[in-house]
Amino acid sequence: MVFKRFVEIGRVAFISFGPHAGKLVAIVDVIDQNRALVDGPCSGVRRQAMPFKCMQLTDFVLKFPHSARQKCVRLAWQKDNINEKWAATRWAKKIEAREKKAKMTDFDRYKVMKAKKMRNRIIKHEMKKLQKMASKKGKKPEKSEKPEKSGKPEKAKRSEKAPKAQKAQK
Fold first, then answer.
1. Structural contact between residues 37 and 73, judged by C-beta atoms closer than 8 angstroms
2. Which of 5, 26, 38, 140 has its CB 3.0 to 4.6 Å from that of 57, i.e. a possible disulfide?
3. How far apart are the C-alpha atoms of 91 and 98, rounded to whole Å?
């Protein structure tokens, strides 16, 4: 698979740890191979140098010139609706679900457990109904075939048993 997310001017990044963890920033300038000048005008992150270790690159790229002012970055951010696009990604939804799960109370966890049990019971019940229907459909042709096949050998067995019983009597 070809690498698609490069460090470039205008690349939007997610801050994974540090004081601004969970916020989005745009790379304004690359300082060296370990740090970049970032700005998050719509996410509350002031312009500052940040190590690449703290950032995770996203698929979004803004169009603005090298070392652009905050006003230019904000206009590009709002023009591309980055906050709305980010909220629609699976990545953001996973983070939101993780945070929601972490904030659950004991009673919330209990309600979730009971709901899962009920859902699994319903699924199990429906599966049993389907299996029963499938086995009935499968058995109907077999029942008509089995008596015919089993009837003939039984008669043969009886006829075999009868001579043995007659021989025992003689």
1. no
2. 5
3. 11
Distance CA 41, CA 26 (A): 9
User: ∠84-87-88 over CA atoms, to 5°?
Assistant: 90
pTM recorded for the entire structure: 0.66
Q: Over range 19-23, report the average pLDDT.
A: 94
With bands split at pLDDT 50, 70 and 90, how would you rate the model's confidence at 154? low
CB 25 within 8 A of CB 70: no
Q: In angstroms, rounded to a whole number, what is the distance separating the alpha carbons of residues 36 and 44?
A: 17
Structure tokens at 63: 């169009």
Q: Which residues of 109-127 are buried (b: 16+ CB within 10 A; e: fewer)?
A: eeeeeeeeeeeeeeeeeee
